[in-house]
Amino acid sequence: MAEVRPRLVIHTSSVKDDWAVTVLGPVRLAMAAAKYGSRLVQVSSDAVFSGARVTYDETCLPDPITPYGAVKAAAETGILAVYPEAVVARRSLIVGGGRSVHERAVHELVADTCDGVLFTDDVRCPVHVADLGAWVSNEQAARLPVAGGSVAAALSGPVGAPVGSARWVFGRQGSRRGRGGPAGQSARAAIPAVPA
What we know:
The protein has 196 residues and is an alpha/beta fold. The protein contains five helices and nine strands. The strands form four sheets. Strands 1-2-3 form a three-stranded parallel β-sheet, covered by helices on one side.
C-alpha cells in the first residue's frame, strides 16, 4: 500500500466463517487504506441481516443468524471503527456463469441430484458478477458519498437489482438458462417451492 498508494481499494474476499480471512484481513486492509489515503469499498453481504424484516436499508443494524453473517457483520463493524469513511456495499446473490453456490444449488435441484427447496418468501437482490465488475472498474464506488459523513453506504440498487426477487423465482429463471434438458428446458418439471 505504501509503495503503490492506490486511489481505490475494493475488498471482496471471504471464507464462510473464517475469522482471520473474513474479519481480521479486511480490518487490517482498512487500517492501511486509511493510513495511505485510499478509498476503501468493502463488499459485504445481506447475510448480516436475519431476514425478520421485508426490506433493509443502510440505517438498519446487523442482526445475523448464521456464522457467515456474523463474521461479515464483525468485518463491517471493525472496518468502520478504524476507517469511518469506508464504503460497505452489501450484496445479495452474486451470480454468473453458473459457478456461484446459488446457481449450482439450482442446477442440482433441477437435475434431482440433491434434496432441497427454494423459498417463495426469501427475497434477494441478485447481481451478475459482470455487472458488479463493471461497477467497480468504472470506479463508481470511489465517487459514492459517505452517508452521514461517518456511516458507510449500504447499497441495494446501484450494484444490483433494485427490486428483489424470491429465491424460487430466481431459481426458476436460472433453471431455464442453465444446465437443463434440450433447448434449456429443466430436467425436472418443477423446483419445489415453499414459504419459509
